[in-house]
Amino acid sequence: MLRDAERIVVLTGAGVSAESGVPTFRGDGGLWKSYRPEELATPEAFARDPGLVWEWYRWRRSLVARCAPNPGHHALARLALAQPGRTTIVTQNVDGLHHRAARAEARERDPKPAFPIEVHGAIHRDRCSGCSHVEDADLAAADPADSGIPRCARCGSPLRPDVVWFGEALDPAMIGAAFAAAEEADLCLVVGTSALVYPAASLPDVTRARGGRVVEVNLDSTPLTPYAWKSLKGPSGSILPRIVP
Ligand code: BV8
Ligand code: ZN
Fold first, then answer.
1. For residues 201 and 59, what is the distance between their CA atoms, to the nearest angstrom?
2. Calpha distance 212→70 (Å, rounded)
3. Which of 10, 11, 25 is the pocket-test mutation for ligand 1 (most atoms within 8 Å of CB)?
4. Peptide bond just before 241 cis, omega within 30 deg
5. Which atom of ligand 1 is closest in space to residue 12's alpha carbon?
6. Sorting pLDDT into bands at 50, 70 and 90, what band is 58?
7. Right CATH number for 8-21+68-120+170-243 from 3.40.50.2300, 3.90.79.10, 3.40.50.1220, 3.40.630.30?
8. Any residues with Cβ below 6 Å from ligand 1, and which?
9. Considering the domain 28-66+123-163 in this protein, what is its CATH number?
10. pLDDT tens, 162-188?
11. Which listed ligand is nearest to 41 at the C-alpha?
12. Annotation says 120 is catalytic
């Protein structure tokens, strides 16, 4: 399937980064086990207690700063670089690990064909809650003990992580490009997602509705499993390098 597919869309979730040491959201030890999403990943939570939300994101940033892409990220980057334009990677993850694998695999070639569409944003960027000015953040400098609220250099409003929270709209250009890729794909490879969060979770349905096939890589079954042409059970860090030609 991977060898013969004309166009491939890949949808990844937190599971693809689990073997890099980035905690997932809903699994054992998942982030939502110790926190409730409504308390942290919503604009209301940020308005109510920006210090608590920043504490959580600073902790996640300091953790991601110590993580590296795993063989699953590298395999997906190789797949996308092998024939630029044939494979589109869409990720729900905000950890930036797909970008890092793309740069490593591309070496002196252009890494952009393996850069993912980050439909939920990126944890390594700050966005101003007032004027929407965006700037890169230094993940390694994130100090979980620091409970301050960073402010915008331009307008003084509180900065927030440049990620999409529950109840917030996704960037129309991003999700539009993701849906377009899913419509054109004859294969949708879904890796490490519980397939619960919309609108990202509807991407495989778009490919199927156009006659394409879905292949799932996950440790467990998900609501998507019954609709998958093939469901490969196991860690993506060992399955992906074996199936990417
Ligand atoms: C929106 C913040 C509308 C960033 C996150 C229908 C249509 C539209 C919206 C909705 C809808 N129904 C409900 C909604 C609302 C909501 C939603 O989907 N709720 C769900 C929970 C029911 N959606 C939204 O609010 C979205 N916004 O649609 O707004 C709108 C429109 C116009 C105007 C205003 C508003 C926004 C969604 C984004 C929310 N932000 N996080 C951050 O801090 O990270 S979501 C959060 O969950 C993460 O971003 C993550 O990406 C996402 C999905 O989780 P997964 O990645 O799947 O991770 P999870 O832990 O769940 O699963 C891991 C999987 O990996 C497991 O299956 C596990 O078995 C597997 N695994 C583990 N290890 C491995 C592995 N697999 C392989 N190998 C391994 N080693
Ligand atoms: Zn500002």
1. 27
2. 28
3. 25
4. no
5. 56
6. very high
7. 3.40.50.1220
8. 13-15, 18-19, 24-27, 30, 41, 92-94, 120, 163-169, 192-194, 196-199, 217-220, 222, 235-237
9. 3.30.1600.10
10. 999 999 999 999 999 999 999 999 999
11. 1
12. yes
